[in-house]
Amino acid sequence: MGQQIQFSEREKDVIRLLLQGKGNKQIALDLGISSRTVEFHLSNIYNKLGVNSRSEAILKLTGKTYLRESAGRLQVKSTVGNPGDSTENGSKSILRRIPVRKIYFILSALAAILIAAVMILKLSAQNPASKPTTPVELTPVTNILVISPSATNVQISTETLPAPVETNPPADVVIPAHTVNGYTAMIESYYVDTSHIIFQVRITGGEISFGDEHYYGRIGSPDLYDENGNMINTSGGFGPAVDPAIYHFEFVPVTLFKGDRIKGQFAFDINNAPEYNEILAQFRFDFDLPIYPEVRFYPKQVITANGLEMLLDSVTVTPTFTQVYLCFPPPSFAPWTIGSQTVLQTGEQEASLYNFRLLFGSDLGGDMRAGSEPYWVPPTKNGRCIKIGFPIGSSNPIFLTLTIPELEKEDPDILMTNQLSIDYPGLSEKEAYHTHLEEHGNIYKGPWIFTVELKP
């Protein structure tokens, strides 16, 4: 056998969970780290193995004897213990095995019901008096604009979405801060659409201190409940926001949200990491938040700066929020993302980057949406696609200007120490982290400036 590959202890932990079939979010929750940190460790693992995808890594790991040596002679066990067990959200699947003979009876019964329904419909059609007298309202739809890269040739896509509703400027919903056992949690911002709920939370007091190696590991059991107290079936996770001192919680419902409001409860615990079973405080926030309709555009605009070509694939706009979908080839095999200095302008409004999420990464196995983007498909098979969000919007969007000064190569490990406060006293956590990235060569300069006209 050739030279033995050496993995760090944390990389061994990631490998163990990777071979159990767990996704990045599950690995992050199990290890008490952020999804971004998992991506960072996976990039290092892929680099050491000389592979470019998750599947290649699994094949290579399971086919080599050094895995059992370097990963501590791990016994790989399936996460699905019994037929019908679900690996998501700890819930039970309703799937059950049905004997073939029973299937015949079931199909026969269904066929009989179908025939009866057809006969009833025919009788109804022959009897006009049986038709309903109440007119049926049709929901209007709007075509989605596709602006070509030349910005002069405009095509209309055949894809349709519900038409945006004209609304007055939304009023902010203030969710009061909670203090439990000396810990204070404040929801500084939130965002809701049909397929996402985001809360950004600042926690102070007690043993919570940014720079502690367990800072992100102290959060446990993040969940959503509806107004009747039933848990909402979601996927998602938490980690650092653009400001790394703030916790970013994101939930993706299995079934899209409906209506114009959502009422419920947002819950999470603070534990005494690394003693994760010791709960220090439990937070429960009641909320009643608006769900604003969105309109989607496909500019398909390409800008090249410093030799790197970036595609602005699509944009979604609500009265309060704007999201932009970008794709680019990373400058190197590393966790590159959109820089925190990015700014969006729409009309007279201007906002800094609020959040970002990796949706596609050929270096991490490809599609990473996990059901979170029902209306978006990756436009490429190579590179990275990232969704970025800004807390400004419009019920009648006309144009936007997006300025991306640089890309950033993430360094999640520095966030697990107090080194930033030591090296950069007097700076905020966000400023200190950006300065650290600059000084360590983790910046790839642009700028990429997109000016997009939006015509629904």
Provide an overview of this structure.
The chain has 456 residues and is of the alpha+beta class. It has four domains: 97 residues, Winged helix-like DNA-binding domain superfamily/Winged helix DNA-binding domain (Arc Repressor Mutant, subunit A, Orthogonal Bundle), CATH 1.10.10; 29 residues; 113 residues, Immunoglobulin-like, CATH 2.60.40; 159 residues, Immunoglobulin-like. It has eight helices and 22 strands. Strands 11, 12, 13, 14, 18, 19 and 20 form a seven-stranded antiparallel β-sheet that branches. The protein has a five-stranded antiparallel β-sheet with strand order 3-4-5-8-7. Strands 15, 16, 17, 21 and 22 form a five-stranded antiparallel β-sheet that branches. Helix 1 crosses helix 3 and helix 3 packs across helix 4. The radius of gyration is 25 Å and the shape is globular. The protein starts with 8 loop residues before the first helix and ends with a strand. About 24% of the residues have low confidence.
Report the radius of gyration as a whole number of Å: 25 Å
Strand count, sense and barrel status of the largest sheet are:
7 strands, antiparallel
CATH top level label of the largest domain: Mainly Beta
Instruction: Please count the beta strands (DSSP E, at least 2 residues each).
Output: 22
Helix tally?
Answer: 8
CATH fold assignment of the largest domain = Immunoglobulin-like
Report the end-to-end length measured between terminal Cα atoms: 61 Å
Q: Per DSSP, what share of the residues sits in E-state strands of 2 or more residues?
A: 35-45%
Mean pLDDT: 76
* Number of individual domains: 4
Helix content, binned percent: 10-25%
Give the SSE string: HHHHHHEEEEEEEEEEEEEEEEEEEEEHHE
The CATH architecture classification of the largest domain is Sandwich
Low-confidence region ranges: 63-116, 118-171
